[in-house]
Amino acid sequence: MEEAKYIWQDGKLIDWKDATTHVLSHSLHYGNATFEGTRAYMTKKGLAIFRLEDHTKRLLNSCKILVLNCPYSFDEINKAHIELLKANLDCYTQNVYIRPLVFLGYGVMGLYHAKAPVNMIIAAWNWGAYLGEEGIENGIRVKTSSFVRNPIKATMGRAKASANYLNSQMAKYEAIECGFDEALLLDDSGFIAEGSGECFFIVRNGKLITPPNDNSLESITQDSVIQIANDLGIEIERRRITRDEVYIADEAFFTGTAAEVTPIRELDFRAIGNGKRGEITKRLQDEFFSITKGENPKYDKFLTYIN
């Protein structure tokens, strides 16, 4: 990881190396924490955070679901993002990944968490394409995981909870060790849920299809792509998808803050379409990156400029 100068921690900027916490912090032992993945992009007007307010709203919604009494308001969290990026501006040489985290700190042990102190940090650093620049252009190889997405009857999928990502971590590990780039997880009924940290789309006969968020996070990038597709006149369908339907799809791709819009060229040793980035995927990619670069005035509302 490429370090920056400062991290925002509990209301103030501190040196990156000093952003530490106690080994008996509650969240470290029991997993009750919530976070966001947010990006800031280099534009002609300077660095701009993509859909900052939507990410902050989702962070606070997650806190409510997990009964984490976040000590900071919506406006305070937005201002803290801007303050941090301004302080680190000289460190950023490319697009920036931002990680706000609300967690339970030191002072209470045991499963009952309500009396544990609530802490918050925001960190931001240079980070390029999560699944690789080559993957953005040529697509990635994906394996259906042996791990099932957390069932909604057991966890709360609307919260971006740290604990929810354990099976994602295991699925990602399995996929990489098997020679693939990413994992695709099914739900407990056997339908496509999402990637280890991404939402999933296919294209069939010119129609864009993506599963509902029944047991997965309400994705901000997924929503952005749906809005873009509407603007481009692409028909959209929200419905369940089976694994064998993916095999015969014309195109497939992942979306997410980290993954952005990443084509899938192969699933389970079966080429998707012609085994390359599809035409509709490229159109959506091009428009998405145009928006993040500040080149589409209609979507300037998505950007919070830093300088």
Give keywords:
single chain, eight-stranded antiparallel β-sheet, alpha+beta, 17 strands, nine-stranded mixed β-sheet, globular
Walkthrough of the structure:
It contains eight helices and 17 strands. The protein is an alpha+beta fold and 307 residues long. The strands form two sheets. Strands 8, 9, 10, 11, 12, 13, 14, 15 and 16 form a nine-stranded mixed sheet that branches. Strands 1, 2, 3, 4, 5, 6, 7 and 17 form an eight-stranded antiparallel sheet that branches. The longest helix has 15 residues, at 52-66. The radius of gyration is 19 Å and the shape is globular. The model has no long low-confidence stretch (mean pLDDT 96).
The shape is: globular
What's the SSE pattern? Answer: EEHEEEHHEEHEHEEEEHEHEEEHE
Mean pLDDT: 96
Q: What is the helix content?
A: 25-40%
> What percentage of the residues does DSSP assign to strands (E)?
25-35%
Number of strands: 17
Largest sheet: 9 strands, mixed
> How many angstroms does the end-to-end distance come to?
25 Å
Assign the structural class, choosing from mainly alpha, mainly beta, alpha/beta, alpha+beta, or little secondary structure. Answer: alpha+beta
Low-confidence region ranges? none
Query: So how many helices?
Result: 8
Radius of gyration: 19 Å
